[in-house]
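Progress note, project year one: complex with pyridoxal-5'-phosphate.
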Amino acid sequence: MHDFRYLGRKLYCEDVAVDALARRFGTPLYIYSQHTLTDHFQKLDRAMSPVDHLVCYSVKSNSNLSILRTLANLGSGFDIVSGGELQRVLAAGGDPRRCIFAGVGKTESEIEFALRRNVYSFNAESEAELQRINRVAARLKQIAPVAVRVNPNVAAQTHAKITTGTYENKFGIAFEQIEGVYARAARLKHLRLRGLQMHIGSQLTSVAPFEQAVRKVLPLVRQLAKTHELEFLSIGGGLGIVYQPALASGRPEWWKTAAATNILTPAGYAARLLPLLQPLGLKILLEPGRFISGNAGILVTRVEYVKRTGPKTFVIVDAAMNDLIRPAFYDAYHEIVPVMRRRGGHIKSDVVGPICESGDYFCKDRPLPRVGEGDYLALLSAGAYGFVMASNYNTRPLAAELLVSGRRVAVARERQPAEEIWSGEKVVAWLR
Ligand SMILES: *Cc1c(COP(=O)(O)O)cnc(C)c1O
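Model obtained:
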């Protein structure tokens, strides 16, 4: 269930009217629902409860400290991809012993930092990395827990920029090479082979590719688990969410029903995968990001101008591709709704930002309610890969972020002051 819905004419986040927040905190503004985050985590956690498991929330999808703390309080582990993300988890009060460290380019200093903090496992993506982890662990007189990321070479049926489980991608080690890699890694004295990991892509909207990948690696996992006494199998993240509720439900006013759910439900996911996973007797790790944070956040923006030129209507808003790059980067669809509904019919519009790029748009030729200067719009499903991918392009300050819980509202990140953007810069001495 989502906690963004209309009560009367106004869009609410939980028990708080969004228009009041936009006026009070300014725009562009990210608003997150703590209840939605909690609900998504718990649904998945409960669905997997028949097996020993740990949900490791993917920090890169939304790494705000309040989001991390919400999940840490629920007992979540964390999937991290950099030393910076580990520092964030620590700053948020998360447990490093519940962290798994992924990524193809871990540096020596990141490995050392993670070893000193006793992360649960490094998910290694190459033999060179295994050797490097072994070397750093030897220097620290430690044994490093590792898993290797297997690339099962299955097509994830998703956007090319977010598929990761085929041999065209830089991720993991080819399925056929894995046994050899484990045999050689077993001879490295400062490694402990703790598990096997995979992650085939993002925004998968059916269970089929997950099932296909799990089926493919099962015999390999059984073999490795026996030979090397593995403790876990991570089946990665990638669970997709509904971005086009109107299309998915056939009802444009889906929020009225409060029944908008993820196409790929935790129950459906678990029902297909548990029968395969349970007999392994291993601990199962999951690495969901978008599934937990995606529909827990919206981006609120103010209409600055409505410009009609030729056949087109451009709704120019104060948010831009630097705040939410998904439409420009992935051709992503975000539902756009008025924060306050009015009568007045619909008109085909392009919602665009003020950045000097043709790619700076949120939608094109989409029938939207008529709006005017000063109205607020909300881009839905903006909780994952939204703020975290923001930049300062065009010297635009990073947006503010709010956390809402029931009637409570708090700033989870202050709006960035403009001067901060160039605070590390200098006019070099010879120019003065
Ligand atoms: C990005 C990533 C995830 C999370 O992906 P979602 O699609 O947000 O669930 C999980 N595991 C790894 C290794 C990743 O790189």
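The longest helix spans residues 208-228.
Residues 58, 60-61, 79, 81, 102, 199, 202-203, 236-239, 287-291, 384 surround pyridoxal-5'-phosphate (CB under 6 Å).
No further modelling is planned for this target in the current period.
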